[in-house]
Design brief:
The protein is an all-alpha fold. The chain is 64% helix and 0% strand. Among the domains are: 47 residues; 104 residues, no CATH class; 154 residues, no CATH class. It is globular. InterPro entries: PPR_rpt (IPR002885), TPR-like_helical_dom_sf (IPR011990).
């Protein structure tokens, strides 16, 4: 055995030596051309050359999809409500009455009306959101011995659902048993619509599951209502679950469902997913509408890396499908400008809207509104002036501008005080457009003064402007003002803002219903939840506000009160989660600076500990996002 091992080693050594000798011979016989310095420089230049940026959406993207665009705005017609008095005048359901205040009179013509006539009348008033008139028509059926059908009851339910009257919708649904009628898919659809409209999403899903147990196949409008309710309640994951269930088990999604899911993608900034959905629409030969196009632009606008593509899509929509951008389109693009800090483009958008409004008046699709100026002020807030660098000018001809109203100067302001001066001038123009003052608009106006470091103006706006226009500060307003206090180490003003914030929360809590029916309690809870999202006082936002107040007080060396604020807020709300220690670093560092070890220990105790990172670990995760 030992002799065999030695023999194997000798054989392996011989093979190794033969391989080395063969390599040397080949190297010696090979003729390599000498590479000069020019070739080396050319190779290096090619390797080090920057990779050209390819657009994420090609210039012919929409053209290649070969879509059929449907502009719903060109076909919008006002629904004319139908009055009961039309019956007494002998007019048909589709005609308008010369007087809607006439009393109901019994005439021979009413005796001739059929069940179909009554169904059409109830349906017309349901579309016009006139449940009272629909109910009157339903009562007349009994008076003239016309037996109600399931369709007439469904139309009456729809009338109440469209008017957001949940209680009467439920009551009408219960009439089906009294009339010996069996609810069908449309009955359940109207009931689900009413629950969703009343923000009772959980109950809507209970009805949905009950309906499925009857072996009924849910219709597309039912799925669309549930998806819409999930998105409004910020339950995007649940919306995708419903959409996938419909797609895999029940129906091919229609234009409405696809558009809703494009909106879901926009909420999360999932542009790639939105584009895939949009391509699916084209594959199934569905008709994207103006709403679909606006939502797709919105998805791109939510991502700064798709900023250019948002404008590219608009150009393609106009060039290939004749899409006419409206106020919603440009308001969306203004949000993109704010994220990209592109004040120049935002000013160009405002000019376009302004000129169109002056030209077309009330017929203009681009008349600026409060959302326009809110988004515009955020553009001014995010803009970073270039100092003494000459601002760029726009390419718009002065001849395009009306002489009645002087518009913005052509050059972009290059200093903070000029940015604020221009924004103040715009703010003073708001009455010319009959713009309604809202908390969001005034908060954006306040935020631009804060970001552009206009200290005195910030205090003035906070104390006077809201009262001047009769607008109540919301939690977003108070949060931005507290940020001002943090950056300026203004402890006195911070306490004033914190007091206003506590008053605001107390007013919201006092609106809660402690007594009443289960229906009332659920409706109020859903309303409070939606209001908290809209005004910025959800549990997570309250925690963020408390952390900011504690950090602000810590920056003014008031560690005792900083700790008191943080602890009291955590004790007050059982649903509020403790802040992470990394979010309290200004407070933590101030404890170290002032050598206050007791407060530091207490702060560490109440905070959520961050996980230990093994920076030098062999198995460190390389794709961590934090």
């Amino acid at each position: 055995g030992l002799q065999e091992d030695r023999t194997k080693k000798v054989i392996e050594e011989i093979k190794r030596l033969e391989y080395e000798m063969e390599s040397k011979v080949k190297t010696k016989n090979a003729s390599f051309e000498r590479v000069d310095e020019q070739d080396i420089a050319a190779i290096y230049k090619e390797i080090s050359a920057p990779i050209p940026i390819r657009p994420k959406i090609s210039p012919d993207y929409l053209e290649n999809l070969r879509l059929k665009f449907l502009d719903t705005r060109s076909t919008e017609q006002l629904q004319t409500p139908v009055s009961i008095s039309q019956l007494s005048s002998g007019e048909t359901v589709t005609q308008t009455s010369s007087s809607t205040d006439q009393p109901i009179a019994v005439t021979p013509t009413m005796q001739d009306l059929t069940l179909t006539d009554f169904e059409q009348l109830i349906y017309a008033n349901a579309l016009a959101k006139r449940p009272k008139e629909a109910e009157q028509a339903f009562e007349l059926m009994e008076k003239y011995n016309v037996t109600p059908s399931i369709r007439s009851v469904n139309h009456l339910m729809d009338a109440y659902a469209n008017a957001n009257n949940l209680e009467q919708t439920i009551s009408t649904f219960k009439r089906l048993d009294q009339l010996n009628l069996k609810p069908d898919i449309y009955s359940y659809g109207s009931l689900i619509k009413a629950f969703v409209a009343s923000k009772r999403l959980e109950d809507a899903f209970i009805i949905f599951e009950k309906m499925k147990k009857t072996a009924m196949i849910p219709s597309q409008p039912i799925f669309a209502n549930l998806i819409s309710g999930c998105l409004k309640a910020d339950k995007v994951g649940k919306a995708w679950e419903i959409f996938d269930s419909m797609r895999l088990s029940f129906h091919q999604p229609d234009e409405v469902s696809f558009t809703l899911m494009l909106h879901a993608c926009a909420k999360r900034g999932e542009v790639e997913k939105a584009l895939n959905l949009f391509e699916d629409m084209a594959k199934y030969q569905l008709y994207p509408t103006d709403v679909t196009f606006n939502v797709l632009i919105n998805a791109c606008a939510k991502r700064p890396d798709y900023y250019t593509e948002a404008f590219s899509l608009l150009d393609q929509m106009q060039e290939n499908y004749g899409f006419q951008p409206d106020k919603i389109t440009f308001n969306t693009l203004l949000t993109a400008c704010a994220r990209k800090k592109d004040l120049g483009q935002a000013r160009d958008i405002l000019r376009t809207m302004w000129v169109d409004f002056e030209k077309n008046g009330s017929q203009s699709l681009l008349a600026p509104d409060n959302q326009t100026f809110t988004n515009l002020f955020w553009c001014y807030a995010s803009y970073i002036p270039k100092g003494n660098v000459q601002g760029k000018t726009t390419a718009t001809n002065s001849s395009d501008i009306s002489t009645e109203v002087q518009l913005l100067p052509w050059e972009i302001p290059n200093k903070r005080n000029k940015v604020v001066k221009e924004a103040q001038w715009l703010f003073n123009q708001l009455p010319n457009f009959n713009v309604q003052m809202t908390p969001a608009l005034l908060t954006a106006y306040l935020a631009l003064h804060i970001s552009q470091k206009q200290t005195g103006a910030c205090i003035d706006i906070y104390h006077k402007k809201f009262d001047q226009f009769g607008v109540q500060k919301d939690a977003f307003t108070l949060y931005h003002m507290l940020q001002y206090c943090y950056h300026n180490k203004d402890g006195k003003m911070a306490w004033k803002v914190w007091e206003d914030y506590q008053d605001f929360l107390e007013a919201r809590r006092s609106e809660e219903i402690n007594a009443g029916t289960i229906v009332e309690k659920k409706a109020k809870e859903a309303e409070q939840h939606m209001l908290a999202i809209k005004e910025g006082w959800t549990n997570a936002q309250q925690q963020k506000m408390a952390a900011l107040m504690a950090n602000t007080l810590a920056r003014t060396d008031d560690l005792k009160n900083a700790m008191s604020v943080l602890s009291s807020e955590l004790r007050r709300s059982s649903t509020m989660h403790p802040p992470r220690l990394r979010d309290m670093m200004p407070f933590y560092n101030k404890c170290i600076q002032l050598e206050d070890l007791d407060t530091k220990r207490e702060l560490v105790y109440v905070c959520v500990k961050d996980p230990v990172r093994l920076a030098n670990s062999k198995y460190q995760r390389v794709n961590r996002i934090d």
